[in-house]
Amino acid sequence: DTAVSQTPKYLVTQMGNDKSIKCEQNLGHDTMYWYKQDSKKFLKIMFSYNNKELIINETVPNRFSPKSPDKAHLNLHINSLELGDSAVYFCASSRDRVDGYTFGSGTRLTVV
Amino acid sequence: GNSVTQMEGPVTLSEEAFLTINCTYTATGYPSLFWYVQYPGEGLQLLLKATKADDKGSNKGFEATYRKETTSFHLEKGSVQVSDSAVYFCALRGRTNFGNEKLTFGTGTRLTIIP
Lengths: 112, 115
Hints:
The complex is a heterodimer. In chain A, strand 5 (about 45-50) and strand 6 (about 55) form a beta hairpin. Chain A contains no helices and eleven strands. Chain A starts with a strand and ends with a strand. Chain A has strands at about 5, 10-15, 20-25, 30-35, 45-50, 55, 65-70, 75-80, 85-95, 100-105, 105-110. In chain A, strands 2, 4, 5, 6, 9, 10 and 11 form a seven-stranded mixed beta sheet that branches. Chain A has a four-stranded antiparallel beta sheet with strand order 1-3-8-7, with no helix packed on it. By secondary structure, chain A is mainly beta. Chain B is an all-beta fold. Chain B contains no helices and twelve strands. In chain B, the strands form three sheets. In chain B, strands 2, 5, 6, 10, 11 and 12 form a six-stranded mixed beta sheet that branches. The interface between A and B is medium-sized, with 23 and 25 residues.
């Protein structure tokens, strides 16, 4: 199946831990994104990479570090997790400015 | 900067009712406009899009017209079904101040259809 896949789907962890979320797309898209959806369903962009190059970094704490080993992968590493980091994180990809984004199914992160 | 304003929900309708979810936007230049749908427990799916003024996007009985004069992209459906219950997001794709493009979302409208 062609898609954007992210793992894990659920992640429960304690405050202060470090965790990673992985994302892969097999659509041949050049640009990948991370979005955060809060408890009120509000979606906010965090990062964008184009061909492994960071092009958008939206005022995100530096505890969050994206890594793109190649244009098909964009992983998100989070250090020293805080309660306020609890949210659903969506990975997405796009081909060009006309097309919309293709989203993964999300990772629900719960920090306890 | 770019922004999207959606009508606040939640919206509750009876099956076969007519649906309108209002969306207006603020953007420089000529953005592309989108409606996304999020079913419970799932990710976002592209529902329809329009890339220039007066374009009409349509899919699954939903439609929306890109109105530049009123900066609007209202979502409509003539007869809703229980399976349409979801959260609907209006979005635009424009350029940031640094020339990079991103998708900016409205706050979402939760729609519930009752049999």
